[in-house]
Design goal:
The complex is a heterodimer of chains A (about 230) and B (about 290). Chain A has eight helices and seven strands. Chain A is an alpha/beta fold. In chain B, the strands form four sheets. In chain B, strands 3-2-1-4-5-6-11 form a seven-stranded parallel beta sheet, sandwiched between helices. In chain B, strands 7-10 form a two-stranded parallel sheet. Chain B starts with a strand and ends with a helix. The chains are: A alpha/beta (about 230), B alpha/beta (about 290).
Chain lengths: ~230, ~290
Amino acid sequence: MKYAAELSLAVPLYNEEDCVDNDIKELVEYFEKHKVDYELILVNNGSKDDTGKRINKLAMKYKRVKTLHLKKNAGFGGGINAGMRAGRGRYVGFTCSDGQISPQETLKVLQKIKSGNLDIVKTRRITRHDGIERFILSKGYNLLIQVFFLLPIADINGYPVMLKQEIYKALDIKSTNWMINVEILTKARKRKYRIGDVPVTFLAREEGSSHVKLSTPLSFIIQMLRFRFKGPQ
Amino acid sequence: MNVLVIGASGQVGSALLAGLASDFSVTGTYSTTPKEGLLPLDITMKDAVGSFLGEHKPSIVILAAALTNVDYCEDHAAQARLINVDGVRNVAHACDAIGAKLIYISTEYVFDGASGPYSEDDVPHPLGVYAKTKFEGEKEARKAKRFLIIRTTGVYSLGHDEKNFLFGMISRMKKGETIKVVSDQISTPTAADDLAKAVKALIKKDALGVYNVVGSELISRSDFAKKIARAFGFDEKKIVPIKTKDAGQKAPRPLNGGLLIGKLRKDTGVVMMNVEDGLRFYKHRHINR
């Protein structure tokens, strides 16, 4: 199979007009400097602000930046899936444009999946600068997932995540919500795919607003229960 | 230098004819729409194409003739193939016979629009009949000994031809119509005069291969329509954005399309206009006429 790039990285964006320019510029410049063969697929996930216009400008400026516009918000997983499906690289993956993962860490994930000949590589956030509240919520969420799905993964929602393209296609991911990571990892474990992780430092969010709200833990639990008993939603 | 523009009665061809006339000796042809000063030529008639080129002996042949009605093509595949594929083959053969360079006008539609904008290096994946026949046409053009493929899209103008988005929008806005325009087709609209300017530069540079020649702004169809309303003093609230699936268009469209023009800029120095500049250009010219 002929691939258009080594890595197709989807970046779902929902109302990220404040941070998308800088974050994408930083990632592009880092990848160019380190001669990464990549394409970035910026997914405007039904934003109500000027995210769509911003990414159109970025795409006209940077040759390897592509856009994909969803008129309606397709959910966190829906946005990721739309972007990864459009990916034409040997590896496909996703990250977030919130400045919390440095381009260096993103490149480490690619290097790990290549050098380790792994099927899936994700990150494990060992140092977090996004507040004690998020830290506790995340720990509790990971514990619940580990127990519920017998999934020995330390940090379920660590990103970026990268997969071999044929593995991504074989997994047939359907989740449109936050359970996309759980679906990827449970299906991969069941099929005995080789999963690796990269320890990373998680930075504080500098611009834009987090989409994690007070209601988020409850929403996570509902999504988790639905996924456990009804499958991907 | 003698330049022949085949399909000079159409939107792109007429703009090229006008834009190149200042620097080259230009002849234009038509097939179904006679226009003063143009000569008749049907590219589906192989012998006629050969003898026409043999008689006029242009050093450059620009093939702008095509069946471009995307939805019509969907229902008339044989006709589309005859013009958009076989016609190109006829012209490419005739070019080789007289040693002329073929400049083939192609389209953004060779891409599927899964995630654009696309560079010249991206792998085409056409969706509908029109798109597939244009891609097949590119393959025929590539068989010519000296070829230049120019991919463009959404060509607009005032003054060259009435079959374009800008002219159509203004006509309807003048009537005060509420206009439904798709908001999920993203592309890079191209001012016809800019296209002519870029083609002229590529000819002077004797460029070969594939070049994207489009406007410098990636924009949705509905946002483009709103900018037209603003630029020409109409009420932009009359523009109602709709989705492609509700537009009743028969042929599939590349939704996340658009083309990149870094190669054109790097090799020729030509800077293409964004939508606002393009509209300002046509408004100014329109007023001065």
